[in-house]
User: What shape does this take?
Amino acid sequence: MGLATFIGGIHPYEGKELSEDKPIQVLAPVKGEEMVYPLSQHIGAPAKPLVAKGDRVLRGQIIAEAGGFISANVLSSVSGTVKGIEPRLVANGAMVQSIIVENDGEEEAIEGFGVERDYTKLSKEEIRGIIKAAGIVGLGGAGFPTHVKLTPKDEAAIDHVIVNGAECEPYLTSDYRMMMERPEEIIGGLKVILQLFDNAKGIIGIENNKPEAIKKLTEMVKDEPRIEVCPLLTKYPQGGERTLIYAVTKREINSSMLPADAGCVVDNIDTVAAIYNAVCKSVPLQRKIITVTGDAIANPQNFEVRLGTDYKRLLEAAGGFKDGKEPEKMISGGPMMGQALFSLDFPVAKTSSALTTFTKDQVAAMEPTPCIRCGKCVEVCPEHLVPQLMMDAAERHDMEKFQALNGMECVECGCCAYTCPAKRPLTQAFKEQRKAVAASRRK
Amino acid sequence: MGKLFNVSSSPHVRSKHTTQAIMFDVAIAMLPASIYGVWQFGMHALLVLIATVLSCVLSEYVFEKCMKKPITIYDGSAVVTGMILALNMPPQIPVWMPVLGGVFAIIIVKQMYGGLGQNWMNPALAARCFLLISFAGKMTTFSEPFSDAVASATPMAMLKAGEQVDVAAMFIGRIPGTIGEVSVIALLIGAAYLVVRKVISLRIPLTYIATVAVFAAIYSGFDMTYVAAHICGGGLIFGAFFMATDYVTSPITPKGQFVFGIALGLLTALFRIFGGSAEGVSYAIIFCNILVPLIEKYTLPIAFGKKGGKK
Assistant: This one.
């Protein structure tokens, strides 16, 4: 039997060699720096501000509280003064109401910050409460509030807690560096989650292009009866929630189901580490690991950076652009699912993962040609859809047909558009069509 | 940062596959059969090949020029159509006939329906059938290998008449027939290339050939020589690997490809054994081309997580 994996998928150029051997470098905040905290860095209702202009805030202080059941707190990652609450640009190009804090450089934290805690003495409710207060959301990019995810309807039905260390997105190496440098945080965080689910075993899924990480974590969990490492075949999108659950458990979920329906809780590497820090170290969500990479960067790196820091600082710390040449394309995230950027004037948010830059935009040079129905899109679709027929429907804006073809099951992974020999913008059309369908359903 | 960056929707990278590369691979895969045909049937066969390809490419160019459409001859699809058509021609055919066929294939069957990807019928095969109906005599006159002498009958005709055929000769190609269909071994070399390059999958060819074989076996009471002759003769190998697998005119769903292969096999065997002609591949493929949308409709894959009708 081969390695755990799913049916479909692609093998894009990985590009991880640029930054995989660069240790995480801590980028300390500087006095006088403006920190920006968008009120919406998660799925769900925006957070409600608890501070006003002129207030002094401390490191780790909740400056905006969850604005609904599915929502998350926003915390200050420095001490300083609130300069205002105003709309600011975020990575996806939208203007989002944000709290602006000027760092006073004191690093003064709230009471109890950094105090060691024994999680085994905490009740389940206390653990969930700490995670909620710490503002932790899915840090892999989805931004789903973690305390909600850890509160399923039927706690006893959860038999798998899966830590997503696939990191299948090309170029990204932040999760890999975490596994290599801070594995105790990952295992510690997983143990905290397992404390919540008595019937579950913990599984750390890692793609086999990271043999060192597999070796290291396997060695570390060999005496942990409830935790095992599951090597996964390297294939994009192995780290997608549905494909990962399938690879590990052979259970399938569709768009209207939650992982909990398949008895699973899936959390990203960085999220699990954040849980460890919040519960065991009393350090709420303060920082992100960000990979700054691509062929346009002078010195590709992995950084630990405080939330709210301006992206331009990351670029500077990585030595700026190679030979001073500006790239044609910059992406927040990786090349398969990342967001193209038109500027760097936005802050590091909870869902930030990388800054990928390309000197040449290979897509811009490509002219879509007629579909020859080669069927490669059908072969690679991890959701087992027929992108070719969906494209037909999408081009005619035939929403009914699009839904009949299970268009709403699309996870927008990009495999079809990647593989298409005619270079047709399949994923792009599906995103648009899915938004239109979602909007019409809300009516 | 003065200048603007390119903004587009993800994914921001693309594979190296191109339509052009696929067409180039298909053309390469037909080379062994083409070379064998020219070697066995002489320079006239080469002339037919070149003239047909030129006719197809020129037709596409002229049509697109006249219609003020973008010129697409560099995608290589017209070259492939020309090669398939030429390999379907008897070696001694007057050159103007396949040239006319090329014009018909490209302008009537392909461009009139909207160009590449829009035709619902294999252009080369449609043109072959057009020529077969229009010039039945010339289109069914075959020459003996390595000679200009007119052959008495093709192996398929002999088989139909209940005569003995030499299966080994059919496998190598020492039989009368069209330029490209005769040598099974040359065709299989090309087909293997297509499979290795992942241009085609074996779903359609294998189900097609297997269905014909099963049908022939049952009909003949498991006479294995008869079955082998059916597999090696009448352009089945050429049709199964090079024409039935045409992307545009075959189902895109994996399950549909099996259904397509079985339908092709049944029709081919029926046409061959019970029909008026000894051949059935071309008509079977063209007929099944029409069924493609229907087959696709009923063979859509079950979406991930939707097994057992879960909502």
